[in-house]
Write a structure and sequence with these properties.
It contains nine helices and nine strands. By secondary structure, the chain is an alpha/beta fold.
Amino acid sequence: MKNKNVYIGTSGWSYKHWKGLFYPPKLKATDYLAFYAQQFSIAEINTSFYHLPKLETVINWTTKVPEDFKFCAKMSRYVTHMKKLHQPEEPLERFFEIFQPMHARMGPVLIQLPPFLKFNYEVANHFYQVLHTAYKQYEFVMEVRHPSWLQNDSLTLMTKYDIGLVIAQSGYTFPYSEMITAKNIYIRFHGPKELYASSYSTDMMESFADKFIGWQKEGHVIWAFFNNDIHGYAVEDAKRLLQLMENKE
């Protein structure tokens, strides 16, 4: 959906196993994004979590899509998994130097924490302060994988700095909360049963569509991404949720 504060897409687009399922068999990989952008208005950039793209690559992505297309880049795991949010200044600077040309097209930056990282008030507060002061032109959401991040002190701190808590739908695999901590509400659909490899029922999609409409009326911006890429479920589920939202207009 465009211009209605609800964005629905998939977590990445460069999946070879989508050829024949979503992408035409003869389509070149370099044309995947342009094809994807014909059907969706947003995409999550997952590859930046594993390794930072080249500056030229980021610029090239922006030329492949319409002007109103948006990207949500995933923070480098060097910041989250290796540095564990400590001394974030230098790696954050490198990350945003590369993504600066995309700034006008960016939705919230996704920060995904590792399951072993517990909430520490001082560390989290310093990290949020750096984001708030040095990168206030960006917006941020955080996907937590340790339940300690769902305690009141953590959620209050997220709210203070307008950091959106990611709603991670994964059955019972990842910590789950629908607590709203910011204007941005960010949902990641990882698969309701088998992680990354199971599709969502129409009933569950209907339930989320109703929630989206309620949040939308409250003035929130909703960002929803399907990460169940195996068998192409992500594309099909994203299309179905888009259709459900259109039917409720």
